[in-house]
Amino acid sequence: MYTRQNQKNLTAAQRKRFVAAVLELKRDGTYDRFVRTHDRYFVPDDDDGLRVGHMSPSFFPWHRRYLLDFEEALRAVDPTVSVPYWDWTTDRSPADPLWGEDFMGGTGQGPERKVATGPFAHASGNWPITVGITEAPFLTRNLGRPHNPITLPTAAELQTALDDPVYDMSPWDSTASAGGFRNKLEGWAAPRSERWRNHNKVHQWIGGHMTGGTAPNDPVFWLHHAFVDLIWDRWQARHPGSGYLPDAPLDRWDRQRGRVLTREDPMPPWGIPPSSQLGHAGVYRYEV
User: Fold this and answer.
1) In 10 A of CB 77, how many CB atoms?
2) Cys-Cys crosslink for 226: which of 39, 45, 85, 99, Cβ 3.0 to 4.6 Å?
3) Mean pLDDT score of the chain
């Protein structure tokens, strides 16, 4: 069993090894396959077909398995590496070491929001964007969105999600569920005065590639989702009598039947059910 650390506690050597493993996955083509997978399963509410990655109950188990696959690929390169997590309720500034030259690099520059510092800057030659929503070959960010400022989620916003004892509820999407931990943490159940909360708000705060289906183009994606995974752990510990919903097949008249996964439905692309990802004992633990 290995440990996922808080990114702020990594040593300089640990940051260097993590970055080196990520760059190697990019070099051999593995990384871009992960980007394509996420984009393939980023299916909005108003699209037809199955939704598994976002805007549905399987948001947590799908990303847990996806993150594990990425971590396994990293550890095949360097067995000492694991995905660190970024607690965005405490490390909230573009000036934090997370965005340093030796780790994630900084915000985008110029009208194109091109990341020009750190190991993932286009000028380094090691991070060409080949799977993107634009044809631009460089990583983009707009930390904090200065032209229309947005803040990272607060501890209070996160607590609102953690306090909800119900995992998810009908209609099992982003449009009408005022309650449910999944919807509140994914970030759709926000007050009218806001558009996003929690997970979604972090993507918007970073901006650039992080705002769409190809978000994993930005390596900070993995640190963000490691924290989302840890938050799911905390919710499970807080509500031990609550579990994944829906836990039984939906009625045949339910418009979400066949569009969201129940607890035992096969979850693509792995063919495993959400129930297989409800814990991770013996595989990894979190440093807290």
Assistant:
1) 16
2) 85
3) 93
Q: Is the N-terminal amide bond of 216 cis, ω within 30° of 0?
A: no
- Tell me the pLDDT tens digit for each residue of 157-180: 999 999 999 999 999 988 766 789
Q: What is the DSSP letter of 3?
A: E
The whole domain housing 271 covers 2-286
Residues 6+ apart with CB under 8 A from 247: 262, 263
Q: Hey, CA dihedral for 40, 44, 47, 48, is it positive or negative?
A: positive
How many whole angstroms separate alpha carbon 213 and alpha carbon 217?
9
**Global pTM value:** 0.96
Radius of gyration of the chain (CA): 18
Residue 151 three-state SS: coil
Q: How many helices (H) and strands (E) does the chain have?
A: 7, 4
Task: Tell me how far the alpha carbon of residue 209 is from its chain's centroid.
Answer: 13
Which residue is associated with the tokens 């693509």?
A: 268
The mean per-residue pLDDT over the stretch 212-225 comes to: 96
**At 254, which CATH number?**
1.10.1280.10
Note the helical H segments in 47-197: 59-77, 155-162, 181-186
